Amino acid sequence: MKFTETQLRSTPEYTSWLQDIKEKITRVQVRAALAASRELILFYWDLGESISRKLQENSWGKKVIDQLSKDLTSEFCGVQGFSRRNLYYVKKFYEFFSGFSDTEVIVPRGGAQLKNEIDHPTIGILLCRDRNRIETEFALRDINKPMGVSEFSLTENLPENLKGSLPTIEEIEADFERLEKESE
Predict the structure, then answer these.
(1) Does residue 75 lie in a domain region?
(2) pLDDT confidence of 158, banded at 50, 70, 90?
(3) Residue 17 in domain
(4) What average pLDDT does the structure give for the chain?
(5) CA angle centred on 174, ends 168 and 180, rounded to 5°
(6) Structure confidence by residue, pLDDT tens digits, 55-113
């Protein structure tokens, strides 16, 4: 017996099967995103290590980061992440975390956190760009660690009572510029 679309969608077997497929797709999407994030962090670690070591081994000077940025940007058109500032931060990322012992740096599947023996038990924080109940429920499934999920919204206007306690965009940009000049 052939079913119409309406009849098919109302059968428990079909709706259950469809739900299983949708859950598998969601799991694969999450695993793929985690794998991509992990690989990107490992790439940044390797790139930072390479930049740091080459600067130590050679007398090229820090302007080599400018040249490397230009060369990588021209070779990989449309790929972001190779600006001078990003390459400098990748180098700093490596140099900062390479100073810790293996027992202090924990690199979970999702990637590059610190934990000491005096720290309390780890909790998880789930950050999503958009509100997505399915991803949140999937992330929390079978979890044995404390996890917090909250909702917040960004506002265009900063409340008056907070304006004096936060830096302005100009102050933040000035700090970045000062850090870049100090690194040259």
Answers:
(1) yes
(2) low
(3) yes
(4) 77
(5) 145
(6) 999 988 878 999 999 999 999 988 888 999 999 999 998 998 887 655 445 444 444 64
Instruction: Yes or no: say if 169 and 158 are a contact pair by the CB < 8 Å rule.
Output: no
The whole model's pTM is what? 0.49
Amino acid at 80: Q
Query: Helix, strand, or coil here: 107?
Result: coil
Query: Closest Cα to residue 143, out of 122, 128, 118, 129?
Result: 122
Residue 147 in any domain: the answer is: no
Give the number of domains in the chain: 1
Q: What's the pLDDT at 110?
A: 42
Across 107-169, the runs of DSSP E, i.e. the strands, are 124-125, 147-148
Q: Where are the alpha helices (DSSP H) in the chain?
A: 5-9, 12-57, 63-75, 84-97, 133-140, 160-163, 169-183
Say how far apart CA 88 and CA 51 lie, in whole Å: 9
- Structural domain span for residue 83: 5-118
Residue 157, pLDDT > 70, answer no
Q: Judge residue 6's burial from the number of C-beta atoms within 10 Å of its C-beta, 0-12 exposed, 13-18 middle, 19 or more buried.
A: exposed
Q: Is the pLDDT assigned to residue 149 strictly greater than 80?
A: no
CB atoms within 10 A of CB 90: 23
- Residue 85 · residue 66 · CB < 8 Å: no
Residue 166 lies in a domain: no
**What tokens were used for 17?**
């099967």
